[in-house]
Amino acid sequence: MKYNPNEIEAKWQKYWAENQTFAAVNNSEKPKHYVLDMFPYPSGAGLHVGHPLGYIASDVYARYKRHQGFNVLHPMGYDSFGLPAEQYAIQTGQRPEDTTSVNIDGGYDKEGNKIAGYRKQLDKIGFSFDWSREVRTSNPDYYKHTQWIFIQLFNSWYNKDNDKAEDISTLAAIFEKEGNATVNAVCDDSIESFSSSEWNAFDKEQQEKILLQYRLTYLAETEVNWCPGLGTVLANDEIVNGVSERGGFTVVRKKMTQWSMRISAYAERLLQGLNDIDWSESIKESQRNWIGKSVGATVEFNIQNSDAKIAVFTTRPDTIFGVTFMTLAPEHELVAQITTPEQKEAISNYIEKTAKRSERERMADVKTISGVFTGAYAEHPFTKEPIPVWIGDYVLAGYGTGAVMAVPCGDERDYAFANFFKGQSGMPAIKNIFDKDISEAAFGSKEGFKLVDSDFLNELGYKEGTYKAIEALEKINQGKGKTNYRLRDAVFSRQRYWGEPFPVYYVNGLPQMIDSKYLPIVLPEVEKYLPTEDGLPPLGNAEVWAWDTTKNEVVNTDLVDHLTVFPLELNTMPGWAGSSFYWMRYMDPKNENEFASKEALAYWESVDLYIGGNEHATGHLLYSRFWNKFLKDKGFAPTEEPFKKLINQGMILGTSAFVQGVWAEISYRDSVEVMFGHEESIAFDKPRPFFIGVSKNVFDSEQFRSDQEGLIDNSILRDLISEKFPKLKFINSDENLLSECYDYRCSKVKPRTYVGFVNSSDELDLEVFKKWREEYKTAEFITEKDGKFIVGREVEKMSKSYYNVVTPDDICNEYGADTLRLYEMFLGPLEQAKPWNTAGISGVFGFLKKLCRLYFDEHNLIVTDEVPTKDNLKTLHKTIKKVADDIENFSFNTSVSQFMICVNELSTQGCHSRAILQPLAIVISPYAPHIAEELWSLLGKSGSIATVPFPVFEPKHLVESSKEYPVSFNGKMRFTIELPLDLTKDQIEEIIMKDERTIKQLEGRTPNKVIIVPGKIINLVG
């Protein structure tokens, strides 16, 4: 018999599918365990070997839990809405739903390229997913529930007294009876007070406008990250280094009317909930920093010669007497109002410049100092002294109030700002209110000082000063104590097509929710996926996109009459909408009426283990916790937190290949006259660039150096270029005229090449490389002395654009999925990044073949019923314990090492005992399920090995009954002897003294001392 992985794996994958081996059931008598992976976005590029790392780890854990007797839910689906599919549709003219379907199920793209499909790739690796529960966020039967949750959010407000969301009707009832004076709600800042009689006198439209200021999802004009290149708003986590993560397009700050969600209402609960979940401290800290809780006070500063007031939030009210100037965010609504005519142009120019920087970029840039004086002055609340008002991009409109009271003596950034603009109009000298020297730097500590020059706060420290300052501010009605959060409400609109449609139509400009019984509101067909000519989102191109309130259906836009037919929302929901509750949909995915039944939710409760990337720390993981808490408030989600334990898998890195070389630009000259080194009458045609590849060792050599501009001029290249271009003549100082000549410039480059063109010795296949791309067809190569061309290597992110991708399909086809699974787990600790090295695959494949040789030879099964030896049992139980402990601790790489040790030991022992090999097949099953199933079947077992109980570790087999002692003479070990561990010192000494080897060493002498430590050492001295 021969180990044939392709045949074995196809057989068992078919068996699992036909028998629904991994289908979980709701309300089982078994204890439940929910293991979840962050579901993938199905791009056309498919999976590379880095993608399955977390999936394999979760699958090992899920399979282990089944062996332990748990009812395991281990589902998989696709986060299939999103910008990449829409961008691809724009570029190729294909429908996003078509390309998404092909990317998942496989098929051919518009150019006829075969797409393997995520589903086939995942199946090939042998995951124990319950595919009967698959979800796709872009399917109407899924986003129907996303739309329903949006409606629930719209119809809710956050009651701070109860610290939970309530139905909006309860708020309206309070307004009807009491007005809003006593309401303690999370709401807009600019809420005007009204009485019950005033509320009841308001017409329906006015009441709706007021309620919109309290709803958990609401329309508001907000500062957003607008990306013209993508035609949509981006979330902060979709921006990297000031440009869009997708495509690298410029992002600017812009005011737009957008749907937003009051995630800020849940800031404290999101913060406190981190104490109750088993997540890495780094992820928790990321969320804590993003939420950004700070305790302090709000302070109001009156603007001189104006009715305007500037509200600031400060964590240091004790420093109120140290305020030297104020800084507003460039986007602050007061800037236009208070700026003097003399400063208007400078302010406008600065605002325009700042709009091109993202908030994240502005927050991260602590070195650049910039700002402009508005010409306006605020008034100190106590001293009434004038305080100049500036704008600066280090202040963000969305954080706090968008304004800061600058105390340079106590804050490094304010200190740097004040010193940078020192001596300019509108920048007074720094005032020191600490009994500390600030000549070199600000004093930022909250300890070890006393306040000076601070009126009634003199001689006080931080705590007492803060209390007294807040008390005094409240007395004059210019401030009060407050807890603030950096977390801002989440913008929920995207100006794009491929996303969930809002279940919203507009009457007189006010949003109305479509009744849930008419959901889903299905995404309409459009001819173009670009914005309309007048700048509306792509849904503005839809011909059938209006809501008929009598027929309760979507109708042609031409029928809009604003009486019974109204326009529908043109924006779509963001990418994080569908992923913010998907784990609950898996619990009951076929339920047409609810996202999940109460019974299913009560049984599964929450995710026991969640595995995914740490890049989602302040995006998906924060939004999903928010939605879960909201659904808990509304009586749907059974738990406060969605994910009990979270593990972030590290990245598998690719080893890129670089073809070092130069681009040579050759230009033809009609006539060149050289007089004393000066060239005249030169006419160039277009440069003729061609690539010269230079093998690594030559490229790195001293003779191949470049000047400061990266240009190269050396004999190696001159010879090659002269040979390629016979008319080329190099101009020397003693030549006066050359009639036909070329000129050349060479620049060093290191383009990447596809790693498949390079062998394990880093040697490039030059002929294949030249055919790869048009620009390399005429390439020339400078090789090593032996004629080989060696590429450079570098470990970096595995990416299709880096040409360093290794597909799991190739590994599975050549070595089998079990080899891939074991190898990925063997690479290193799950949470660390590690480079991929295909060379190591063959060793793991060899291990599996060696495992098989314990069970069968070339012809037959060789397992016997012989009684296992003590060594056999010791090896087995050592492995059982190690593997169980490792899986529980997610140390998967050391389990694979133990498997190798185990098989080596059993092979050396000549073990073919059924009593050993039968439990061994179960132990290895979570890692290499296909071969485990095959071995189980060969052992005469029926059904799948997947739910067979995991072997029980028996400690007695690891208890040593004897010890191999080193026997030393005067400290030097001369021989070893194995003795029972229960012998006394006297018994050991008697045996040693009678041993022939001892007699030979002593040569008739009597030792002065015999040192014996039972279980450890034997040493004869003298």
Automatic annotation (TrEMBL):
It is an enzyme of class 6 (ligase). A motif ('KMSKS' region) lies at residues 797-801. Keywords: Aminoacyl-tRNA synthetase, ATP-binding, Cytoplasm, Ligase, Nucleotide-binding, Protein biosynthesis. Residues 873-985 form the Methionyl/Valyl/Leucyl/Isoleucyl-tRNA synthetase anticodon-binding domain. Pfam families: Anticodon_1, tRNA-synt_1, tRNA-synt_1_2. ATP binds at residue 800. GO terms for molecular function: aminoacyl-tRNA deacylase activity; ATP binding; leucine-tRNA ligase activity. One of its GO terms (cellular component) is cytosol. InterPro entries: aa-tRNA-synth_I_CS, aa-tRNA-synth_Ia, Leu-tRNA-ligase, Leu_tRNA-synth_edit, M/V/L/I-tRNA-synth_anticd-bd, Rossmann-like_a/b/a_fold, tRNAsynth_Ia_anticodon-bd, Val/Leu/Ile-tRNA-synth_edit. It catalyses: tRNA(Leu) + L-leucine + ATP = L-leucyl-tRNA(Leu) + AMP + diphosphate. One of its GO terms (biological process) is leucyl-tRNA aminoacylation. Residues 11-155, 789-823 form the Aminoacyl-tRNA synthetase class Ia domain. Its EC number is 6.1.1.4. PANTHER family: LEUCINE--TRNA LIGASE, MITOCHONDRIAL, LEUCYL-TRNA SYNTHETASE. Belongs to the class-I aminoacyl-tRNA synthetase family. This is Leucine--tRNA ligase. It comes from Flavobacterium frigoris.
